[in-house]
Model the fold of this input.
Amino acid sequence: MTIEFTGRVVAVLPLQTGVGQRGPWARATVAFEVQDGRYTQKIACENTNEAERFARLQLGQMVKVKADVFSREYQGKWYSSILCYDFSVDGAQQPATSSQDGPI
Done:
């Protein structure tokens, strides 16, 4: 299933890297705050194709995201993922400046 949304960056997790059988890999996770009617939801997305660019998003930026949502079963348990395959920063919004350390 494909979803599209525009959200404000509320957390950028550290870039994860490693080396597997097929060579080096990288994965970035970014959490977005999305307005859903009257309620605000938070959605965490992963990106593996452009992980380094995805990990450079800044708190407060408005980002348009296209992602695939999928689930898989492993040993009787189900796990869901949201994998971002396309994103662009909304040029009208500037990153928020905060005196706090770490994610909001």
In short: Residues 93-104 have pLDDT under 50 and may be disordered. Residues 71 and 79 are 5 Å apart (CA to CA). Residues 2-89 form a domain with the OB fold (Dihydrolipoamide Acetyltransferase, E2P) fold (CATH 2.40.50.140). The longest strand covers residues 23-36.
